[in-house]
Amino acid sequence: MISTRTAWQIPRYGRPEILTPVTLPMPQPRATEVLIRIHASAVTRADGMMRKGEPLFARPFLGLRRPRNGLSGTGLSGEVIAIGDKVSRFATGDMVFGEAGMRFGANASHICLDEEGVLMLKPETLSHQDAAVLCDGVLTSWHYLHNLGQVQKGHRVLILGGAGSLGSAAVQIAAAMGADVTATCSARNAGFVASLGATRVINYATEEALQPGVGYDVIFDTLGVASFSAAKPALADAGCYLCPVLTLRRLPAILLSGLVGRKRALFAPVGLEKPQQLRAMLSEILTQIDQDRLATVMDRIYPLSDLVEAHAYVEAGHKRGNVVVV
C-alpha cells in the first residue's frame, strides 16, 4: 500500500487562493475505522464559508485564526481499501459515501472515517459524483422540509434560490411531497427549475417573491437572502420560515418568533443530528432516488488538482446544482 496521500490544506482563513495542496502520511484505520480511497468529493458553499471563517461567531469552534483541523472538504464517495479489526458494517472493496463532518479532509485522495459515522453503502446505480453530494444540499433540504417544515400535500411552498445545491433538491423534494412549489432563480435557470417540479418560477431580478398576503405554508430560504421579518407578511397564519444559514442578525428572530402569533422562524443544523438519524434520512433519500422521485443535479466536475478553481466557481454564486472534484 502506498505510504502517502494528497489533500488540500487551509493554512489561514481567506479567498480560494489560500488553499494549498499537501502530501501527508497515509492514515491507518483504528479499530472501528475504515480507510477510503476517495473517487469524488463535493465542493460546497458551506466549504467556502469554513475556508473564510464565516460566520465569525463560529470561529471559536472552527479555530480562531485558521481552521483547527486544517483540511478542506466534507462530502465524499469512494472505495473501502482497509478496515480496523472491530469493523462490522463494511468490508474491503465496498463502495461507500458519506461525510467527514467536523473532521473535514474529504477533498483528498484518501481518508479514514469511523464506521458508525455518516457513512453508507453506495448503490450500484449511483455514480460516485452523485453520491458525493448527497450529504450537502439533498440531506439538508430533506431535513428542513420533512423534519422542520413538515411539508404536506397541498401546502404552498416557496423556495428562495431554486437552482443551487439545496434549491434544486428542495424543489424536487417538496414537489414529491405533493406541495405546490414556487421557486426563485435567475432568468437563465427558469426552465431548469420548472423541470424540477416548480409550478411557478420567479425571476428574482425583476419580481419580488415575498408579496404580502400570498400565504405560503413554508418559505425555505436556501441562501439566506431574506429574513424572517421580510418573509413574515408572505406566510400563511401558521406558516414557517426556514433558513439553514445562521447569522447573528437572524438569531433573535429564531428565538423570539414563537412568542407572538403563529408564524415561526426555524433553524436546526442537520450536522447536529446523530449519525444514525442522518443515515436513516439518507436511506429515505436513496429510496426516493430509486423511485425516480429525486435526482442530484451536477453542474461541474473538476480534477482534484483544480480545487482552487472549483472553490472560486462556487463562490461566484452562479452554479446550477452541485460541484465535485475527482
Automatic annotation (TrEMBL):
Gene3D superfamilies associated with the record: Medium-chain alcohol dehydrogenases, catalytic domain (3.90.180.10), NAD(P)-binding Rossmann-like Domain (3.40.50.720)
Q: Which SMART domains match?
A: PKS_ER (SM00829)
Q: Which Pfam families match?
A: ADH_N, ADH_zinc_N_2
Annotated protein name in UniProt? NAD(P)-dependent alcohol dehydrogenase
- Annotated transmembrane regions: none
Locate the Enoyl reductase (ER) domain: which residues?
14-325
According to the lineage, what is the superkingdom? Bacteria
What organism is this sequence from?
Answer: Seohaeicola saemankumensis
Q: Which SUPFAM superfamilies match?
A: GroES-like, NAD(P)-binding Rossmann-fold domains
